[in-house]
Amino acid sequence: QVQVVESGGGLVQAGGSLRLSCAASGTTFRINDIGWSRQAPGKEREWVASISRGGAANYADSAKGRFTISRDNTKNTVYLQMNSLKPEDTAVYSCSADTYGRRYWGQGTQVTVSS
Q1: Dist CA 35 CA 21 (whole Å)
Q2: How far apart are CA 80 and CA 95, in angstroms?
Q3: Smallest Cα–Cα separation from 51: which of 65, 77, 71, 37?
């Protein structure tokens, strides 16, 4: 059993930055990849970025060059640094921790980017 909790969302102006955190707890030794997804009103959930246990990162095209995902295995925490934010980035951002058997989701954190 794994629990994940996101934090760091908020309201920012276009061009601003936010740093999201995803803290995992429980049987964290089972976790492999951790990722971030987002869902805007009226849209499907969209994968944003993921990072492996060893630190290999992957990004959606919309995130490349602006977002950076990192992982601190000692703290069982993953971060998503978001720079140069755009109104199109407005969404609920959710963290997911993957084991081979299951994907565990956090509650989500709201990111709102005003123009």
Answers
A1: 11
A2: 10
A3: 71
Contact 80, 49 (CB under 8 A): yes
Calpha distance 108→110 (Å, rounded): 7
pLDDT tens for each residue of the chain, 115 residues long:
999 999 999 999 999 999 999 999 999 999 999 999 999 999 999 999 999 988 999 999 999 999 999 999 888 999 999 999 999 999 999 999 999 999 999 999 999 999 9
Tokens matching residue 16 = 């601003």
Q: What share of the chain is helix, strand, coil (3-state, %, to 5)?
A: 5, 55, 40
CB atoms within 10 A of CB 66: 15
